[in-house]
Every structure is written in C-alpha cells, then in structure tokens.
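To assess whether the prediction recovers the assembly geometry, we first specified each molecular entity separately, as shown.
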Amino acid sequence: MPTFVYMTRCDGCGQCVDICPSDIMHIDSVNRRAYNIEPNMCWECYSCVKACPHYAIDVRGYADFAPLGHSVRVRRDEDKGIIAWRIIFRNGKKDWDLLAPITTKPWGSAIPNLNDVPPPSDEMRKSQLLYNEPKYIRLDDGGLHTLESNGLKLKEGVAY
Amino acid sequence: MAYDTIVEDNIDVLVVGAGLGGTGAAFEARYWGKDKKIVIAEKANIDRSGAVAQGLYAINCYMGTRFGENNPEDHVRYARIDLMGMVREDLLFDMARHVDSAVHQFEEWGLPLMRNPKTGTYQREGRWQIMIHGESYKPIVAEAAKKSADKVFNRICVTHLLMDESKPNRVGGAVGFNVRTGNYHVFKSKTVIVAAGGASNIYKPRSVGEGAGRVWYAPWSSGSAYGLLIQAGAKMTQMENRIVLARFKDGYGPVGAYFLHLKTYTQNGAGEEYESNWFPALQEMVGKEYLDPEVSHRTHRPIPTCLRNHAFINEVAAGRGPIRMVTMEAFQDPHLEEIGWHNFLGMTVGQAVLWAATDVDPKYENPELTTSEPYVMGSHATGCGAWCSGPEDISPPEYFWGYNRMTSVEGLFGAGDAVGGTPHAFSSGSFTEGRLAAKAACQYIDDGKATGIVVSESQINKRREEIYKPMETYRVYRNAITAGSVNPHYINPRQGLDRLQKLMDEYCGGVTVQYMTNDYLLEIGLKKLAILNEDWENGIAAENIHELLRAWELKHRILTSESVFHHTLFREETRWPGYYYRGDKMKLDDENWHVLTVSRRDPETGEYTMEKAPLYHIIGEDEG
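The predicted structure of the complete assembly is given in tokenized form:
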C-alpha cells in the first residue's frame, strides 16, 4: 500500500506526519504509531521514508500493478551530502547499490540571506533586472536581453 | 465549531503555495521589499512540497546564454512550435532572459549540477535540459525562501482569496484552515502571489486502485492555482490546453533523459518504427506549417509533442501495440545504465519500484510505454493558467496592464502553474516567474496601489462558515445511517472525486474515449458538472480535518474542470491532436482560431464569458 510502517521500529515520533506532502501519514490513535491513511493518494515520493529516524517506513509497490517481493530502500544523509539507494528485484537477479550527491556544500551554508545584502538602487528598481543580475545572463558584458537588443519585434497574427 | 480564528495582519506580500514558483517569489521579495512583511502559506511542509517534492534529475529550462548556447528568442520559438503556436511570447521571452540567473544561483547554493568535463559547461541532456543530482532541489530552494520570509505557515490549506471591499476587483488577502489544528487562518495582505499547483486527478486515471496515487503530476496538485483565481474572478487563458504524457507504463517514469541523453527510441509491438506512418494523414489535419518532417529533419525543428502522442495513440488503436522504449542498446553501457536508474530515483522512485517488482531490467528487455490520462497545468509542455500582464518593455497593449505577472485582479499575481500561456517553464522557469511576480508586487505597493484596502469582519465570517460547512453536514446527517459511507444526505470527498473523474473522462476527452469529445458531449458534461457542484455545495461531508482538506481540494478541482469544459467548447477546432480531439471539428483552423482563449467566471453569478485574445509572435525586425 505504497508506504507502510513496521510495527516494531516505529516509535510514533511523527517526523513522517510532519513531512508528508499529501497529508496521509498519520498516527494511529490506538497503537500510537504512524501509518498511511490513504494509499491511493500516495505518490511513492519517499519523503517520509527519508525522514524516518528509525528506518521504520518502507514501500510496497501499488497493488494494482506491482507484484510482491521487491525492495527499494534509501538512506539520505545531509551531513555527508549523500543519498544511498538499494534496489532488489523480485527474482533477486538484480541487487544494486546506487549513490548520488544531494549537495555540494555543507548543508544550507551557501544560501544567502537577502536581508543582509545591500538594497537595490533606484536605477535597478526602474530596470527589468532581478537580484544578482545581470550576472550569468549574458555571454558578453551587456545588460538584459530585450527585443531591440536582439533585433526582434512582436507582430500580431499567424507565424510559425 | 471550537476552532480558533488566527489573524495575520499587515502583510505586504502573501505567497500562497511554496513550490518552485512560491519559493522564488518569497526569496526575491525580500530584496525589493527590505521593509516589507513577507508571509508564506503552504498546504504541506515547505521542505517537501509541490511538484518537486521528491526531487528532479534535470532542469528542463536553461538557456546557457553565458556559454553562448541559446538566446531567449530561441526558446520562445521552440515553445511556440511545441504548443502549435498558442503561447504568450512576451511572458516566455521574459522568463527565458532571466532563467539562467536562477539556475546559476542554485549551483551556488549547493545544488549539484553536472558539468561536461570537456567543455566545462553544464552537462546537456537536450538543447534546453541540463542534468542535475536534484534529490534535494526542493529543500535547498526552501531554505532560500525561509531566510527571506518573515513567517512560514506550513499545513495551511488556502481555500479562498479575500477581496477588498473599498475598490472592486482588488485583492485583500486569503483565508484557509490548518490541516493539523483545524484552526481558521486569515491573512490580510496588500498583495497575493498565487503559486499553488496545477491539477492532477481531475481525469479518471488508468490505474484502478492504489496506483491512482502514481499519477504523473503530484496527487497533491489539486488545481488550487486555478480554483483560487477563478473564484476571485480572475481571467483565465488556454484552459482547454490539457496535456497527455507518453511515459513508462504504470509508473509514469520520465522519458526525457532516455530520449535525449541515452538515445533510446520507440517502436511498436512488432519492433517497427511507426511515427512517420501517421504523419501524412496528420499533416492533412494540422497543415504543413505545423508538421513537416522534412523541414524538421533538416533544421532540427522539433515535432510538437502532441503530434507524436497522436501517432502513439493511433498505432495502439490500430492493434499494433504495445509501444516500447528501446533501451537494450543504450543499457549495455554500464554508465548509461546507471544514469537510467538514477533518473528514476531522483524524481520518480515509483518507476524503479515497479521495475524491481516486475523484474523488468531494461538492459535485457524493452519496457512498455503508455499515454497518460490528461492533466491541467501550466509549467510543463502546456500553458493553462491566468491571463497575466507581461513586462513593460516587451508586451503589446493587449498584454500589458501595469505590473508583470499581475492577473486581471489588482494586486493578485501568479507564478508557475498559475500563469497562462507560458509552457516549458518547468522548475527553473517557475522559480523565475515567482521572482518576477515578487519584484512587481513590491513595486505595486511602493506605487501606492494598495492603500485603503477594506476587508470586513462579515467577509471573514462568511468564509469561515463556508469552510467548515462540510464538517457540519457530516455532524448533522451521520446518525441518519447505522454505519458505513452510503448516506442519502451527503457524499464524501472521495466519492465526489470519483464522480468528477468519470465525467471528465467520458465527456471531456479522457483515456477511455481515446481523448475524444464534441459539442454534444461537452454540453452534457457541463450539466453533470453543475449538478456535482450543487451536491458539493449542499452535501459534501467531512468526517475530520483531513477530509475537510480533501473536500476543498475537490472544490478547486471542480472549478478547474468547469473552466476546462468552457474553454474546450469555445475553441471550435482540434488544435492539439494527441492531447484531445473535437470529433465534430477535427481540423486545425488558423483562419478563425489562431488566437488565445480568455474566460472569466463572474464570482457573483457563476456565469462564464469567453473571448478571443490576439496572438503576437516574436519575429526578426526585418521580417514580415
């Protein structure tokens, strides 16, 4: 049922409830552990799987087209900046580990706070430029592209 | 009901929905509005919300102007031919001239963009696409937005916009409820940037059970971008332009990297190339200007996505399916094989789960493809959304009313799926549109356009009553029956969604009718939809706050669907064979319909008015 939660690993901490984009990971009021309340609104996005501190959440493919007996597990590590996947086929013939980076910088350290950058000049306000522009938007040192600068015009009617 | 009313007052810029468009808006707003109060209202958790929640393996809109790869007008021409001419070229040019700035900042923030070791430029997947390790794309841009915003309200389902009562057609904020506490939230704001999502799940999906969750666009994309704007009386455009995706069967895993980077290709059940067989008849339907394989071959002009879908759909209907992706050649290269799998793990894990479950190893067998149910959205290869003003230095008079990305309602802006006529924005373009809207919103306030806004207690109380009515309906009528979900007084949100999906499918061109509709079917569909809306108004029941969320998502989906019906009925031609067909008007008709469709739903009466808006194309100064 897309995501499910192992009874013996879940401690009801609610991290999955907090992160689920679809609002379908809830805490069961009787056994105080998390479960998927609406499997047909689950995208198998793995947000809850990645967020669970106890690796208590797993995915069993959609019952209407995915047979039993497979496994796609994941471990995401912000400190190391890496995500590790393991894919195991139903017939066991493929058992693969795949690694990918999730960031190139210490987590979150390189994101600017725009409260701290100097305010835009009046000239910039009147222009079409956005923050940090014209950096990166030209091959040469010119400003923002316009119809005039690129030798273009808008014409009403049919064109292909 | 014992829920509290929580008022957040004196907001300058309210961002509704914090996906890629909303995070771009909140981030940029701080630069232009150092002294302004910037607030985000997000339905889920900003760290994993929107269409990019699970990540992306590519950024599909990057010009590479810095590396001399493309200019903005090149991308405009590409989007124009792909959408059979129906695009807002002022908005597209504007997005394209800014988008590289966003992408390079993502790299500075730590998003791993792959580089081509030979050239030092970003690793191209195709002309517009670059490859990334984007599992954490969303949490990274969320950090940027959180640093800029004064407050982020997670888990707020925004149901309505508030309107100014001192001046008609001006926005005054938004209201909604917290899906955890149930509390009523009021946001009084000078401007609102709607950056909510497009609509999945309004058409009956091919899946029959749990797999309904494995829709192509996220199941939480509930058409709120459109529901909110339509309710406020904003004009909409190109809402007939739903999209059908050719994707790996059942898992809807993406095919972009497979086609472009891995150089895989499709064939029919017998292992034959089939697309070109359908092109002569298709050329009769759409004209040589839109489909000329010889010219496309010579000039690398792409064949429009919808037309390739048309060949796919017809080949299957002719009994020569299934259509397969030929992966067995490319996957013999271990490096390409790894990329093929990473591509899924980075953005559609469910497809990897499915192949593991069915023992499909694309190295040894060519996987099946399918065409999806239709989706209504405005940032992928289609352009549904609000009729928005363009930038001052580009837009012709019909496309310009003062502030970039402002809808036809004053102070109400759009970004991402919310903006109409701007396909092929994808993640980076949506983020860029958010930035553009934020700058314009700050300017609007600085120009004194947002003074004297009046939002009365009675407006706030009226919305509060409306919002909780489904829970009241449940409370009143639940005990009329012993148990279960069958009740003569009400339906629950899932039952309502099932009815919506069935009628959209059968009357508005879904998969079970091969994407076919006509005048007669559309008229019947509209009647049935009106009755569904009546049932929603009088008898939608929510047992708890989670169901209340689903009830309001359904309301937004119904409003979106109604708009799709009216637009489809209005455009009397088949503009995008492969996305949908008007059986009674099977030809593309440039003489009468080389125009954009614009609608407005009167918020008081619910009446629709439709109009044609002129199309402007970008051409060389010395042309025509």
